[in-house]
Amino acid sequence: xxxxxxxxxxxxxxxxxxxxxxxxxxxxxxxxxxxxxxxxxxxxxxxxxxxxxxxxxxxxxxxxxxxxxxxxxxxxxxxxxxxxxxxxxxxxxxxxxxxxxxxxxxxxxxxxxxxxxxxxxxxxxxxxxxxxxxxxxxxxxxxxxxxxxxxxxxxxxxxxxxxxxxxxxxxxxxxxxxxxxxxxxxxxxxxxxxxxxxxxxxxxxxxxxxxxxxxxxxxxxxxxxxxxxxxxxxxxxxxxxxxxxxxxxxxxxxxxxxxxxxxxxxxxxxxxxxxxxxxxxxxxxxxxxxxxxxxxxxxxxxxxxxxxxxxxxxxxxxxxxxxxxxxxxxxxxxxxxxxxxxxxxxxxxxxxxxxxxxxxxxxxxxxxxxxxxxxxxxxxxxxxxxxxxxxxxxxxxxxxxxxxxxxxxxxxxxxxxxxxxxxxxxxxxxxxxxxxxxxxxxxxxxxxxxxxxxxxxxxxxxxxxxxxxxxxxxxxxxxxxxxxxxxxxxxxxxxxxxxxxxxxxxxxxxxxxxxxxxxxxxxxxxxxxxxxxxxxxxxxxxxxxxxxxxxxxxxxxxxxxxxxxxxxxxxxxxxxxxxxxxxxxxxxxxxxxxxxxxxxxxxxxxxxxxxxxxxxxxxxxxxxxxxxxxxxxxx
Amino acid sequence: xxxxxxxxxxxxxxxxxxxxxxxxxxxxxxxxxxxxxxxxxxxxxxxxxxxxxxxxxxxxxxxxxxxxxxxxxxxxxxxxxxxxxxxxxxxxxxxxxxxxxxxxxxxxxxxxxxxxxxxxxxxxxxxxxxxxxxxxxxxxxxxxxxxxxxxxxxxxxxxxxxxxxxxxxxxxxxxxxxxxxxxxxxxxxxxxxxxxxxxxxxxxxxxxxxxxxxxxxxxxxxxxxxxxxxxxxxxxxxxxxxxxxxxxxxxxxxxxxxxxxxxxxxxxxxxxxxxxxxxxxxxxxxxxxxxxxxxxxxxxxxxxxxxxxxxxxxxxxxxxxxxxxxxx
Lengths: 635, 328
Prior knowledge:
A: mainly alpha; two-stranded antiparallel ribbon; B: alpha+beta; five-stranded mixed beta sheet; 12 strands; 41% helix; 19% strand; elongated
């Protein structure tokens, strides 16, 4: 490519050192506070995203410990009912909206551009805006908790309890608006990922050569795009009911309390897969590296990802099995909920086959993957149990379900995520984490997790409902609850070891080099941490595991070095189509996020905020999109 | 360790957990559900053992070199296909078992005892009705039923969503404002079964329990007749003074005592409160002392509940609790 141009600015015929200096000048961010705010480097933003999400994980974990303290004995008085309801609402909302979804999207923001071999994510300024929006939404929620006015209606905020009549004050509004912040952030990232995967892949990375992780992130992004509008409609109509007296959810005036549940779970069930599918991708990346052979069943795995994504929209009613639905409807949703066990099974079998054919090397990332398989299979099987309408009528809204979804979400997503941190930490920081502390962290987290959550299955079958701030001494639950509370200390200790390891290794870890694990995907083809421009020259891909099949990775030339430029390729074959400019750093996404935050928070109190608050947003957007006179893209 | 836990789990399934347990089934619905739980649990446990066992075998066996040859790919393809087929079969089988269990849950005989249940923050109102839907009498937080007879509960909510759950007798069903749900249950033997609200409903969701007392037909009829009667007159001077206190203080604005001027309806009907086993929706055993404690300071015992603190002298408190205790 690029033969027809003879710009001196092209990277053709430049020596590596000279090329790096030029690219660094074009792509790098300068030091300084405002420069840091203005950066649009996907790696910097992803790192901020990940660190912020892990801070929320710690906070959410502390809330869980507070709940376990209160439940450790019957009729305990450590925490009153009002504070307890805030705590479990915060725990759920925080873990779902401020930790799990953002951290998975952040992994995508970091890894996808590197794995597809491009220089930055698509719409990088939108990416910066997404982070700031997420941060402000999280701060809003936690600030309200600090002021003792946090939402107290559960992370699901069922009406009418969250409606104007039974949810006085601004608590439910704060919850609903936090949703708006985080969904906005999530939608932005989803759009970026889809475009990055479809249009910015390295030449030669045809659809059947995309790493499974990238497929997983792509399917996840589509789920976000389809599912999130439902919750935004739900939270917005709830705010309207509360603020301007609409009656969407008031049965006395023609509204419907169940409408909320349909809207919420139409989002809420895919939400589980929005969290889980990226974990499938993480596992599918880690596993081949530590068994020394490619993943078995690439096509099957990709089809399973897509099938899971499609099916996940047909299951939402299984959260509503005890609201009194018609039998036929119930049967349909039982069948569809059971059916999703098939693609989940396909994934597990492919991983087991890969392990069978490979030679496992027991490093910390693999330990977490193994712990994931054992734990997730159990969570999946209890998922089959709750998919049955009659069985669910006994365990719905009990501790059995609490156990089930912690097996799926912690076992199914957090275990792979921590494995992924051990795996990609060297890439992100240039330093290895400690193998010794890693083993301790795994042992404590794995044992602590099962000791904490397994007994909850039994408590549920023994009749203990969820979301109770206490229980009475005559019920036979005290012993197991105390056991669970004590076990949760072991689990917390495991996380403590993990975080200590992260902090120590960040400063003092051993240097990692570009590819410490001898892995096969493109992110390992560049230095650790990668330079601002990711790749000195755009790699050309000839197989599914490019770093395993070619001794020297071929590269494409002809990119300009004096301005930020990406290679745009075709969707299916990834044939080069155009060189496209990539936006430069800008503080306007930050100001837009501030203006949006002001409007959204103000609108909790007055509908006029939507009118007056949109003026600063418009001003910020004009700054953002002000034409710079960049020349047209070149084909 | 985990295997040991799972074995403990299976042992526990054999039956345990008190009178609010899905594993202590005392009615046909609960028995059918318990059988379903046992079936699913055993099958799922077996599958988990297979997967984990295979995983451990693979890890223990450590190959010298990873295999990528054609023969290995072939074997894996066959194994994965077979496993997926087995998954489909198991899942289909469990789906059929689930449908079957749903069909066996009864829908109620025509001569079923009819009770309207109104859930509210945070107690249960039970209105016994005759075949013409006319109300016979009202009770709170204690549901008496005849053994061996179908009982049809009409579930409604007057505020937020609640869920009625008596694990030993049947699965749960929600009470949703603006809707009406029907739940039929039957007890196979006399006994006291505890139920509790299962849908988060606000501050005192944790203290929204009730008792189901299954009695022989004769005992039940006797109880129902007594409940339908107006309140007994106080038998001594102290209780009589308590009645005066009740009628002159705000109590009567919220509570009904049939046969007296008290006809309030926002709190539980107290006509036979002294005869109930618990007060405060399963909170405390009914004694003169617990009644006094509740009246003196309901907000400490059940923070956030809708009963205000009514200032009383200690003399009045004593008299009032004597009156309440006598309302049997």
